Request: fold
Amino acid sequence: MRLIVHRIGPACTVQDQGRTGYLDQGLSRSGAADLLALYEGAALLGNNPALAALEMAGMGGEFEATATLTIALTGAPMQASIDGSPIMWNASHQLEAGQRLVIGSVLQGSYGYLHLGGGIETEVTLGSRSSHLTARIGRAVQAGDQLPATGTGKTGLKLRADDRFSGGLLRVVASFQTALFDDETLTRFTQTTFHRGARANRMGMQLESDGDGFAARGQLNILSEVITPGDIQMTGTGAPFILLPECQTTGGYPRIATVLPCDLPRAAQTQAGGEVRFEFVSLEQAISLQAAFEADLVRLPARVEPLVRDPHDIPDLLSYQLISGMISATE
Amino acid sequence: MTTDTQFPLMRTVGFDGLLVTFAQTMSEPSNRAALAFRGAVEAQQMDGVFETSASLASAYVRFDPSQLSHYDIKKQLRALLDSRDWYSAPLPSGRRFWKVPTVYGTDLAPQLEDAAFAAGLDPAEAIERLSQSRVRVLTIGFAPGQPYLGPLVPEFNIPRLKELTPMVPEGALVLAISQFVLFSGPTPTGWRHVGQTAFSCFRPEMEQSFALNHGDEMQFVSVSRDALEDIRATCTDGTGGASCEEIPA
Reply:
């Protein structure tokens, strides 16, 4: 079965956990900007977190199933409805053939996710279904596309999602170029409140702050060196960029620190203007923070709850089978 | 970076990586060392290692710290480092030599004259020398399959431009600091666009997605614009009319 795309925002792509093993050929991992959202969707549908979902940057679209389909919505909350009736975010639902699923703009955060039961089964390229637009693998999903899925999965479940949609404190570790920045600059970096700038995509997000930039010594004479997602790169003006899943694999701008993988969903979800601060943690602390995050991912399926429908929340109550007995009585 | 640093140098990269750096700058021995060391780590297939890569003078290893501690992987990599002289390691085996038809200058590669001027050569002389240069894939990176090639003779140690060129196309041959880059996709750049090829470095839709390997050698042979147009019209395998032969070990 398929999900027909009638209308869609300009920056929606199919994403799974990305591809590993091509770094030496200059190809970065790609994969969902908010990894936690993939795990949440999998828990809501009873699916495997390795499956692919539709990542919707900023706004969703209008969709229709060709046959009964199970769906889940996670990540940045967006207004969503089926045939005009609002449906809950962070929950799994059934979408009948012909029904229209409409997903609007983000209410908070940046990246919302639409999961289809059994995963979106687009073509696998180099071991992953993740689009990587800068590498020209895959393309943005467009109106008229049909996303294939098996449709298998549970519905009627909800999850209390971790609030990670309004910026906040990001934990970082020192990396191999941190020592290029003097102590004064590093201290100022951790004492500054940054705002997410307008320039942001899956390659990286710009941060702005009042006052001087954060320059490294010998900034312009640094040999190009490996880049990893989460690196905080200082551009020529000393303005930081947090690098995200589609970042380049090498680069000559110095990196002041690296955001922990467990805090990357919070980083990527920060909406334009949102406040971000940084705190250095030791490698030992980072390892225990990341281990706790991974343990939480494993426990997610045990945290889903039934989505109980209060009759007051059902606007089309009278269209349900309550009236079928009435019809036979008048015949 | 301090100048009294001892190489090879091992440093952490973020939360889950280590970088082994063989020199502060790119040189023939440090590039060989980085390639050979990365190859040796890859060959060991250590449990807990996700992936490895080589850059101009460093090898990078990404691993799972919950499976393989920083302490343990450092110990293993240090033992591997001490096992031989990596600076005299041979280049990888199975290398190939590519001859790629290239249009120098014209409106296809409009910064050739500017590059010749910066190198103190007249354009014909610059084309002659570039066309005869046999260069090596020093590293692949920034974009998928995209090679950094060198070294070129010292005349071509010209700086990057201050202003970025907004966009050069796939297959563009650009030049700075005695190196070429052959672009794998359309991109803005501060390097001078001196040649244009029909060579595709990254072909995700084909079985062999990546055209080149570290250590491969390339020569960008001058052809006429008509010849390149002809190749574009007839050659569909992404090689842009390039010839390829094995380099004996």
Q: What stands out?
A: DSSP finds five helices and 22 strands in chain A. The longest helix of chain A spans residues 283-299.
